[in-house]
Structures are given as C-alpha cells and as structure tokens.
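Bench log. Compound arrived from synthesis this morning; before running ITC I wanted a structural hypothesis for how zinc ion sits in the protein. Inputs:
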Amino acid sequence: MENYIVSARKYRPSTFASVVGQKALTATLRNSISKNRLAHAYLFCGSRGVGKTSCARIFAKTINCRHRNADGEACNECDSCREFNKGASLNIVELDAASNNGIDDMKNIIDQVQVPPVNADYRVFIIDEVHMLSNAAFNAFLKTLEEPPSYVVFILATTEKHKVLPTILSRCQIYDFNRITIQDMVDHLSYVATQEGIIAEPAALNVIARKADGAMRDALSIFDQVAASSMGNVTYASAIDNLNILDYEYYNRLIEAFLTGNIVDALLIYKEIREKGFDSLFFINGLAQHLRDLMVAGNPKTMCLLEASDQTREALAKVAAKCQPTFIYNAISLCNKADLDYRTASNKQLLVELTLIKLCQLLSPSPHESGAGKGQLRPIKPSAQAPQATTTATTAPQPIASDQQATYGNRQATPQQPTPAASPDRNNNMPTAPAMPRPTVAMPRGKMPVIGGIPGFSITNPKGNTQSSDNAAATPQTSAQQRSEKFTDEEFAEAWQQIIDSHPTEQLLTNAMRNARPRRHNEYHFIATVESEAIEGSIISNLGMLLGELRNRLKNDMVQLSIELNKGQATATSLTDSEFYSVLRKKCPYLNTMIQDMHITLI
Ligand SMILES: [Zn+2]
C-alpha cells in the first residue's frame, strides 16, 4: 500500500480531452490557445469538483508547452510539461483565497507578478475561491488585474460567482463549468474501475455518481471507499450499504402501499427505514425524488430527464405504468408540504406518518372528506387511455376510447346504427356479445342536459334512452334488440360488486369502484360519487368496459352512468394535521390498536 495514490489524484486529467463532462468549454479553451488569442484574465465558475482547478493547470501547462500537438493539447513530454506534471514548475503560482485572503497574501502575489517566466512564455497565477478575498485584497489586486505584464495570465476560480465584485467580473473572460452528469461520471468511474482491475456493477456506479452530486472528485473518493471495503468487487448492495443510501426498493414498496391504500404497510415500512438509521427528512426528500423520477419515467418524452442507468429506468417505468399522473402530482405535493413543515413540526415522526396516511388515501376517500358536502358534477373527460383488454365475452368488440374522442372532437351527438354483426340477431332478445351496442359519450344537441343542477354530459346508449327525461340528445326510439329488464338498486349494487370481483388484478379500478358510491338518479341512470380526481380518472378510463359489463349483467342496454366529483365540505379541508388525525382515529378505531401495537407516541 506504500504507493497507493487515491483515484482522485491518480486520475486527475492531464489533457483537455480527459476532463470529464466539460467538452464544449475545453474545446473553446483549446481553440483560443491554438489561435493564440489569450486573454490576460479568466474566471472559471462552477460548483466544487467539476474540474475548474484541473482545467486551470492544464491551461497553464498547455500555453507553455514547446510542442503542442495538432489538437492544441500539451505534449506532456517537453521539459516544461514534465515540470508541470511533477508540480515543480516555477511558472505556475497557486493561491487558495479561502485560507489566504488578506492584503499581505495579495501583496505577495503582486510581487511575484513582476518576476518573468523561467524557460517559458507565460507565468500563470491561479487564485482559487477568489470570492473569499477581503475587500482590501480585492482593491490591491484590481490594478494588477487590469494591466498585468504581458507574460502573466490570471485564472480565477470561484464556486460563487455572484459574490465576485463586478469590477473583477468585467476584467475577466468568464467560463461557466457544467455540473457533471450522472452518465459522464458513471462512464469515467467505469474507466477507472477497468484500469484498477476492479469489478463494478453499473447500478453501483450509478449510486456512487448520484451520491457525489455532480462532483467528480467526490465520486472518485467514494469509489475508492466502496472498492476498499468491498474487496475490489463493487456491487449495488455493497454500494448502498457503504454509503448508507436508502435502496429504492423501499420506495417502490411504499408506492405499492399508496396505490392499494395500505396504511399499515406504509407505516411499518417507514418504521423499518427509521430503524436502519435514516433521518426522516432525508426519507421524505428521497420519497419526493423517487416520485419525481416516476413522473418523468411515466412518459417516453420526459424519460431523458432521468439521470439513471438503463436498468433503473426500466424498473422505474414499470412502476410508473401503475400510477396515474394525477396521483403522482398529488403525492409530490404532499411530500413537498411535509418537507416545508418538517422544520417547524414539534413531532416530526408524526408529521411523516400523517403524510404517509394521506398518501395512502390519495386513491381512496379519507373519512373526514365524506359527508353531505354538496357534490359537484364534473364533465366526463375523454380518456387517452384505451380500455384494458379483457377476455370476458361482455367486452365491446372495438376500442371505445377512440369513439369517445371522436364524439368530443366533432362536438355533436353520434347516434349509431346497430353494427352489421347484429343483424342476424335482430329478433333475438338476448343478442350475442359482439352485437352489444357500443357505449358512446353523447354531446347534447341544442339544450344542455342538466344533472344535479349543473350542466354536464351523460353517457347514453347509441340508440338513445326514451326513459331518461334529462337526456336531450337521445333519439326517442327503441330497437327491438335493446334489452330493458327492470332491476332493483340491490341488483345494481350486486352487479357492481361482481365487476369488482371479476377484475382482481386491476387494483386501481377496483379500488376506485369500491370507493365510488353509485346511486340511482332516475330509472336507468346512476351517478357514482367519487372523492378524488384520481378515482374519477380510474373509472373514466375504464368507463366503456364498466358500462358494457353493467348492461350485460343487468340485461339492460339503457343503463347510464355519470361520475360526480365530491370534494367534501369546505371546512373539512381546513382541518389541521392534529385535528384531522383525531377525526381519523375516531372514525377508524383500528388505528388506535395499530398505534398501540407499534408503540407510537402521539402528542
Ligand atoms: Zn509539452
């Protein structure tokens, strides 16, 4: 281990081409050198570990190189280059202004500026963290910076450009360094691993790169640490273990709990995370970040915003496919609120637990939201999502969503003729499944139908519904093949339940259906009241299938279904967290048992 050199030093770039993640900037610097258009002062800005000092040193070496190659890079072989590489060159002077920021340090630099270069064309002065210079030092420096001897080049570096005086900024050529992307870091770490004969999983390198937060130097230090403790075999498991990073599997399990409304699971997972020693604020922020990743992974167009390995992208996309965008937006918003409230909360654990409970209830109504709040009838929105294919005979033979969109696009009712397949069954009161009329969303002609006092749309069968008094769009004509058996509220509820039972794998829909409360509006028209837009969305996106199954099970083609969004009473939404929690405990006695079982202390 005598000759061990940390990777951050060993793999410090020695040419512009080997600087990671700053291609455009290094190309500009190289061009200005090869065209001999040097400024006398440069300002390199960017966060720590992005290569500012490395670039400054390469720049100093390159402008003094005797045999620059065709690409404008230093040869690394001439005397000057060798001295630079050994760190023994007299033509480069570095000052760390973070620790040497006084007037005397600056006077020392100004004195050195007067000494001409030795066996070279330029003397380069690198002043790191230049924003830390005291005012007196700044003022002493200004004159020299403005009119330095012709052989002097100043390279100032700063992590906080806004703190640099305008008088300095105006005298420098400014270069802004990018944060290094995760992918660039992973590529470089992978190169270092190969050079060192270390086996490293891409997922592990990704974790290291994320932890380094845009700083290559940190990434290399972390890599050394993980490689040392995992005996040269850097796996995903060893990386998260070493770096005390919360595995995204925890977040995925939580998302599953949110989607199924499983409060118990969510609270227990949080307990598990706490017991592993993770800070609650770190956890909430991690959860928000994970939700954000799911949000961008849910759409191929935004997938490029995801800085992750292909493996992680694939895994995220799978989870994202289960989540409605509305659910993710609301969930991020709840996490964000918890983050803001965290610092002022006296019981931080309770705050996080409340947030988790609310997250679990995003797709199911919470008790405090139910009640006799005046419902708001919402127009049924056409869904871009095609109904899920099922193998039951009750499924309509053609995609329904496109019909709905077409109807909306034309903004007119589309009374349909029976499909040709129905003709042979014209006299049959029990048509075969493919002949079942396709449900469409009909826009009213002339007068808007009014349901619940608010103008809205309703769903009607293609031939219209003579019994429906409020359906102005319907054609008063009943086809011989339309079924119109009478049914009771109980039979409707039974059919509703049967549909829930027959789709055990479609948890989003069945969960939404369980929470919707369909009630009879008139003879065949039912209104399902839902408590959130997410539930509304789940039902609407499956409306074609749902209506088809209802009509089939009830043997009645005139059944109509409207969705009504009930946002609850205005006062209910203004409850504080603790008020909400006490209402919740009263309404769900099992919460008390759970709190006792889990030894949670409440304030
Ligand atoms: Zn050289």
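What the model suggests: The domain at 248-369 is CATH 1.20.272.10 (Zinc Finger, Delta Prime; domain 3). The chain is about 45% helix and 10% strand.
ITC booked for Thursday regardless.
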